[in-house]
Amino acid sequence: MKENNDIKFQSIEEIEQEYKKKGYICSPQIATNLYLASHLEKPILIEGPAGVGKTELANITASYLDSDFFRLQCYEGLDESKAIYEWKYGKQLLYTQILKEKLNNILEDADGLEASMAKLHQYDDIFFSKKFLEPRPLLKALLSKNKSVLLIDEVDKSDQEFEAYLLEILSDYQISIPEIGTIKAGYKPFVFLTSNNTRELSEALKRRCLHLYIPFPDAHLENEIIRLKVPGISEILRKQLVAFIQQARALDMKKVPSIGETIDWARSLLLLHADILNVQLVKKTANLFLKHEEDKAMLENHIYDMIIKAIRIAGEK
Amino acid sequence: MERILEDFIITLRNNGVRISISESIDAANVLKFIGYSQKSILRDSLASVLTKSLDEKIIFYSCFEDFFEVQGMAHNSPDSKEKGSEDKETEIKEPKEKEAKNNNIPIDQKDSALTKLLLSDDMTSREIAIREAARSIDIRSIQYFTQKGRYMARIMNYLGDAALFKDIQRLLKENTAKSTEKAKALQVQEKQLFGAVKAFVEKHFTFFASSSTDKIIEKSLRETSLSKIGIQDLNIMRKIVNKITKRLNSLYSRKRKTARRGQLDFKKTLRENIAYQGVLFNISWKYKKIDRPDIIAVCDISRSVQSYVQFLLLFLYSLSESFARIKTFIFCSNLVEVSNIFDNYPLEEALKIIESGKGLDIIMGSTDYGQAFQDLKKGWLDIITNKTFVLILGDGRNNFADNQSEILTMIYKRCKRLIWLNPESRFLWNSGDSEMKSYLPSCHMAMECNTINHLERVADHILSYR
Question: B64: domain range?
Answer without folding.
Answer: 2-81
